[in-house]
Amino acid sequence: MRALYQTVLVTAVSLGAAGWLNVVAAAPIQVTLRDGQILPSAIDVDKGTTVQISVRNEGTQVHNFVIPDFYIFTQNLNPGESVDVSFVPDKTGHFRYYSDRQGVPEPGMQGTMTVDGEQ
């Protein structure tokens, strides 16, 4: 089962005489780092849309968060620390994310981000 912790909020903004415009904003995707596990293990996003990820280390060891195909490399996070990252995917496909606190992906601490075509 694929877990997706992404909520899409739709807000209407007035444009005066021009009418209404729907603005779509995605809430941050919550990623939890635990010793030996990253949750969720799968994330779905759209190409060309800003992706916001809130990463929290709930483990007992130092961990980080890496999506090398999009040049996302967080600092090492001590237990209880968090960091927010954002980027705009410019390509589609399946991309690995993981924790590599010592330069090598940690066992069990990986997932896959799927980037679909623009909507």
From TrEMBL:
UniProt-annotated stretches for the region Disordered: 98-119
Pfam families: Cupredoxin_1
Domain EfeO-type cupredoxin-like stretches: 25-115
Signal peptide region: none
Protein name in UniProt: Plastocyanin
